[in-house]
Amino acid sequence: MQTVFVTGMGAISSLGVSVEQTYEALIEKRSGIGKCKQIQTVHTDIPVGEVSLSNDELRALLKVSAEKFSRTTLLGLVAAQEALDSAGVKKDKNLKTAVITGTTVSGLDRSEHFFHHFLLDNRAGDISNLLHHECGTTTQDIADYFGFHDYISTISTACSSSANAIALGSRLIAAGVVDRVLCGGEDALSNFTINGFNSMKILDRELCRPFDKTRSGLNIGEGAAFLVLESKKVAEEREKEPIARLSGWGNRCDAYHQTASSPEGRGPLQAMKEALTRAGITPQDIGYINVHGTGTPNNDITEARALITLFGEKVPPFSSTKLYTGHTLGAAGAIESVISLLSMQHNTLFPTFNFRQAIEEAQLKPITSVTKVENIKHLLTNSFGFGGNDTSLIFSKE
Amino acid sequence: MNIFINGIGSVLPDCGPDENGIYHAEKPKYREYIPPMVARRMGRETKMAVVAALRALKEANNPEVEAIITGTGLGAMSQTKQFMNSLLENNETMLNPASFIHSTPNTMSSAIAHSLQCNGYNATYSQRELSFEVALSDAILLLKSESYTTALVGGSDEYIQELEPLSKLINLPKHLSFGEGASYFVLSPHRTELSIELVDLATDFSNINAQQLLEKTIEKNNIDTDDISSIFVTHSDVDLSHFSHAEIVRMHPLVGFSLTASAHALHHAVAHLRKKDGTVAVVNKGLRGETAIMILTSL
Amino acid sequence: MRKLMDTLKQEIIEEMHLEDMEIEDIEDEMPLFVEGLGLDSIDALSMIVILEKKHGVKLENPDEGKDIMHSVKTLAEYITQQQA
């Protein structure tokens, strides 16, 4: 098995259009949650984590022609470009390069447009918009843009999509199938998802309060993040200092309910355990956990129970950063991987800064202020989704 | 390591196209497979997937499943459409969340996991016409590199009326029209009496000529051109003139066009090999040039 | 009251996609959730939509409505009381 290194990363979210801007917002405790500007919706009172750039501004940034890509693809391209630049890589004929992305919304903004017109008149509506509905189109557009055609794949496991994309990327390198992977995920805000979560009555009208006794729901966000993964061999040959090593992944299905977690957090627990086993470490080795922590009553209590079952009295320092970015759905796993890697790089943990009171039953307290730590050797990041698709990733210092 | 297909199950078009040329899948007695209270919120793509999966497992003597992987081009289209229309009609207020909750593409894999009470690996892939193949390649990787021993992998897509105008846009030849269905497979490194060997899966995203990729793939596996007895083709425009000895089976007249038609082609290929020994290929070509080859052999 | 209860049953059958059921299959005092009819938390959200959309009665969340949504009878009583 090849050792898998992270050699580049890129991110765009309501915190900013680059990893650097993301880091600044995190240490300044500046949340990206605010009023919705880009989407036409009657729900103007619902706060969201929106990328500040319009589609036109994103196109200008990327120098691409008008109308060609969905917003989801545009977000993905920005983050993917940054990841490739930070890794210092381009298309290389001698290295097999895969593009793996996770998305759940994909081109819904475009299909919404189609259905809107189709509903009014079944001969109207530009049917080409519906083509973007297919999740793989987003990945194909990104792969075409950079010219990577060795392997392309798209994972759509709801809110764990991009975590699974990163896991698959690492498996392809570990098995020697490819040398390098551009992997991550992207999801744009859409009327569909805002209304969907609103109809489920799990959107907080204020800033979300992950792991807090008074939590009452999530804030939905948008964004994209990408990692460049390379085999140790490839990275060493070009003398590239890795950011981290991807040392473990776990993918389990809760198999309990389409949206609610099992009371004991069976899927989350098994996913975390599996990741630890693959990484060959014990729970005590984990120096930080970026929890899924959406702020919904159901997620946080079941995730808390799983953490307590796994770590007992010694739950490692943890935080949810969804009060910064909002829940970016399919992109969440990748964005939170980047945030976790920033913690590792800077020996700094980013807080769930509005936390006040612990959930009575669990009594778990996240990090509440920007915290300097000595050395994080291993960290864990959780991503759980609809359908009980639960995934955990472990990153380690070399 | 050799990979074997030890069980197949499908819900496929069984009686040719309707008056509009659409290939509708058979309508199994769903209540024999899925409790009605569970089935009531599922779109057809999910119901078909669960039935196909259960049929495949039954054939393989119901082994314990360690991984469930689905490829789907368009996911839960009818649920997506239902929620979208509802939000437009009701001006975003008073919406029933049931269709939203079941609109994510991973509904199929998770419904199968729920039905089997399987906490194992679970994933869903969409990659246009190669949606099934990228799902299959994940399963193969799990078996070969992660020591999994049983993976359930399949493809499912449903037809909804709104897709019809798309046929012009994606340049479907006139005589071809949309189809739907689900096909699932039980994969294992362990051989059984029913086993058909999946010799290789090759994918290419660089707009390679399909015949060229087929030739490359059989050469890699030390198979002669003349040894390929049948070729199952999802896209009619593929040139296979170098394989003059092989019987060419066009899948379109059997199952119509869908983004997971290659899963159905694989089903037909396995069924064929169970009746008649030999080595066959499945050739799938997407509209943006993506190409996949599967090579199968009887034992 | 009788008419309102039958209307509610019809609405439940439609909104909850209980396609194979008839009005007669739902008894007035039968528990709607878990045991009884076997509805779940997603149905509870659908029920709130029925109450608001068809009967102009607002419920903020399912927890608050646990007793109200116990059976068709309790629902009908609550609607009548609210509309009075």
Topology:
The complex is a heterotrimer of chains A (398), B (299) and C (84).
Chain A: E1 4-13, H1 19-27, E2 33-34, E3 48-49, H2 55-62, H3 71-87, E4 97-102, H4 108-120, H5 128-131, H6 135-146, E5 151-155, H7 161-174, E6 180-187, H8 191-199, E7 220-221, E8 223-231, H9 232-237, E9 244-253, H10 266-279, E10 286-290, H11 297-311, E11 318-319, H12 322-325, H13 332-346, E12 348-349, E13 371-372, E14 378-385, E15 389-396
Parallel strand pairs in A: 3-7, 4-5, 4-6, 10-11, 10-14
Antiparallel strand pairs in A: 1-8, 1-9, 2-3, 6-8, 9-15, 12-13, 14-15
Chain B: E1 3-11, H1 36-39, H2 44-59, E2 67-71, H3 77-89, H4 98-101, H5 107-116, E3 121-125, H6 131-145, E4 151-157, H7 166-169, E5 181-188, E6 196-204, H8 210-220, E7 228-233, E8 247-250, H9 252-255, H10 261-275, E9 279-285, E10 291-297
Parallel strand pairs in B: 2-3, 2-4, 7-8, 7-9
Antiparallel strand pairs in B: 1-5, 1-6, 4-5, 6-10, 9-10
Chain C: H1 2-15, H2 41-55, H3 72-83
Helix pairs in contact in C: 1-3
Overview of the molecule:
The complex is a heterotrimer of chains A (398), B (299) and C (84). Chain A is of the alpha/beta class. Chain A has helices at residues 19-27, 55-62, 71-87, 108-120, 128-131, 135-146, 161-174, 191-199, 232-237, 266-279, 297-311, 322-325, 332-346, and strands at residues 4-13, 33-34, 48-49, 97-102, 151-155, 180-187, 220-221, 223-231, 244-253, 286-290, 318-319, 348-349, 371-372, 378-385, 389-396. Chain A has two domains: 4-237, Peroxisomal Thiolase, Chain A, domain 1, CATH 3.40.47.10; 247-388, 3-Layer(aba) Sandwich (Peroxisomal Thiolase, Chain A, domain 1). Chain A is globular, with a radius of gyration of 20 Å. The mean pLDDT of chain A is 94. Chain B has ten helices and ten strands. Chain B has two domains: 3-188, Peroxisomal Thiolase, Chain A, domain 1, CATH 3.40.47; 196-297, Thiolase/Chalcone synthase (Peroxisomal Thiolase, Chain A, domain 1), CATH 3.40.47.10. In chain B, strand 9 (279-285) and strand 10 form a beta hairpin. Chain B is of the alpha/beta class. Chain C has 84 residues and is mainly α. Chain C has one domain: Orthogonal Bundle (Non-ribosomal Peptide Synthetase Peptidyl Carrier Protein, Chain A). Chain C is built from three helices and no strands. In chain C, helix 1 (2-15) packs across helix 3 (72-83). The longest helix of chain C is centred in the middle third of the chain and has 15 residues, at 41-55. Chain C is globular, with a radius of gyration of 11 Å. The chains are: A alpha/beta (398), B alpha/beta (299), C mainly alpha (84). Chains A and C meet through loops of A and helix 2 of C.
